[in-house]
Design a protein that fits this description.
- This protein is α/β, with parallel strands linked by helices and 399 residues long.
- The protein has two domains: 279 residues, Aminopeptidase (3-Layer(aba) Sandwich); 112 residues, Alpha-Beta Plaits, CATH 3.30.70.360.
- It is built from nine helices and 16 strands.
- The chain has an eight-stranded mixed sheet with strand order 1-2-4-3-5-16-6-15. A four-stranded antiparallel sheet has the order 10-12-8-13, covered by helices on one side.
- Helix 7 crosses helix 9.
- Bound molecules: zinc ion (ZN) (2 copies).
- The site of one zinc ion (ZN) has 4 residues, from loops.
- Its cofactor is Mn(2+).
- One of its GO terms (molecular function) is hydrolase activity.
- InterPro entries: Amidohydrolase (IPR017439), Bact_exopeptidase_dim_dom (IPR036264), Peptidase_M20 (IPR002933), Peptidase_M20_dimer (IPR011650).
- Belongs to the peptidase M20 family.
- This is Amidohydrolase.
């Protein structure tokens, strides 16, 4: 089917996408609590005539658009939860839900997906294959919405999946992509050291958890520098160490919390083992006890090489080639990785920054906002990739 028709339709729908985004922006909902948002999405998709399944893996919504001609199935994923942040933007579409804000652009992702859906629905008869819109709840909060959605069959019959994220480190009109691991696995641990408290003047009668904790903080930081292959990226950060309240009392317990980010699956589990080993032996050496709760979170996000190549070509039909850049991977995390762990997928960033208009604050900032032109760019690149995938795969079927 003719791509230019879809692009023209998206241009025509731009104002509506802005309106949709602003409505969602005004009524943000926290992860796992997205009641209104899920309903707005399901109602919109139903009105377009799509087959809609809601409460997928929780509050997820899966909407299926079957083309008039046979072909493969491609999915577009958009997350829709917001964050516990008080918005500091003074705009007509400012959040009306106190303490909750779309500070990660998931309102934009949703508006993009709905815009694409409406554009394709207008040409449903001419479409070869099927497009599935995967509206995902709860991306921001572990254990996330992606995993239960996959387990609840969101990807059944889907051959490939694409997603984009707003990016305020990148000017509007540009995209970032990469054909390898682009975001890390994110795991957390919580450790309680249990000793014997007492008077600060009589440490020999106590088991001092502060001293043991200090040793552990130091030793655990050496896991990455001494036990991980230097060519494999990893980071361990201890973000909390709490114990004691006053100068002359040795407390009975101490609490340490940390996060571990990795790209490589083996390194991920090696670090978890080292943390357990070092904790066990350090604590035992001083005669204390411990509880260690190690939580494996989102896996690393790995893009599919072939699909990413297809995406880059598809993006070149929308944006000048010099605006399509290879991105540097980073240790952020994203549960889109559960989708790409199940089927081939690729995830890219759509530039949403505009210095002149003041859209420069990064995501999760109380002043985060985007140049809404990004809605049109993101929608066109995703639509272009979906069409190329369906066309390519339909050709393959003919051979
Ligand atoms: Zn976020
Ligand atoms: Zn996000």
């Amino acid at each position: 089917m003719d791509k230019s028709k879809i692009f023209a339709k998206i241009d025509q729908l731009f104002a509506e996408m802005v309106e949709l985004r602003r409505d969602l922006h005004m009524y943000p909902e926290l992860s796992f609590q997205e009641e209104r948002t899920a309903k707005v999405i399901a109602d919109y998709q139903r009105q377009l005539g799509l087959e809609v399944r809601d409460h997928v893996g929780g509050r997820g919504v899966v909407a299926t658009l079957r083309g008039g001609k046979p072909g493969k199935t491609v999915a577009i994923r958009a997350d829709f939860d917001a964050l516990p942040i008080q918005e500091e933007n003074d705009v007509p579409y400012k959040s009306k839900n106190s303490g909750v804000m779309h500070a990660c652009g998931h309102d934009a992702h949703t508006a993009i997906a709905l815009g694409i859906s409406k554009a394709f629905a207008a040409y449903q008869d001419q479409l070869c294959g099927t497009i599935v819109f995967i509206h995902q709840h709860a991306e921001e909060q572990d254990p996330g919405g992606a995993k239960p959605m996959v387990e609840d069959g969101a990807l059944t019959g889907v051959d490939a999946i694409f997603a984009t994220h707003m990016e305020n480190y990148l000017p509007v009109g540009h995209v970032w992509h990469n054909d390898q691991v682009i975001l890390g696995a994110s795991d957390d641990f919580e450790l309680t050291i249990k000793g014997v408290g007492g008077h600060g003047a009589f440490p020999h009668d106590t088991t001092d958890v502060i001293q043991i904790g200090a040793q552990l903080v130091s030793s655990l930081h050496q896991v990455v520098s001494r036990k991980v292959d230097p060519l494999k990226p990893a980071v361990l950060t201890i973000g909390a160490f709490q114990a004691g309240e006053t100068a002359n009392v040795i407390p009975g317990s101490a609490r340490i919390e940390g996060t571990v980010r990795t790209f490589d699956e083996d390194v991920r589990y090696q670090i978890a083992d080292w943390i357990k080993q070092i904790t066990k032996h350090t604590v035992a050496a001083f005669g204390a006890d411990f509880d260690l709760d190690y939580k494996f979170g989102y896996p690393a996000l790995k893009n599919d090489r072939a699909l990413n190549q297809l995406l880059v070509k598809a993006a070149a039909d929308v944006l000048p080639e010099q605006n399509i850049h290879v991105m540097e991977p980073n240790m952020g995390a994203e549960d889109f990785s559960y989708f790409t762990g199940a089927i081939p997928g690729t995830y890219f960033f759509t530039g949403s920054a505009n210095k002149e208009k003041g859209f420069t604050y990064p995501y999760h900032h109380p002043k985060f906002d985007i140049d809404e032109t990004a809605l049109r760019n993101g929608a066109k690149v995703l639509a272009s990739a979906a069409l190329d995938f369906l066309a390519e795969r339909s050709d393959e079927q003919k051979v």
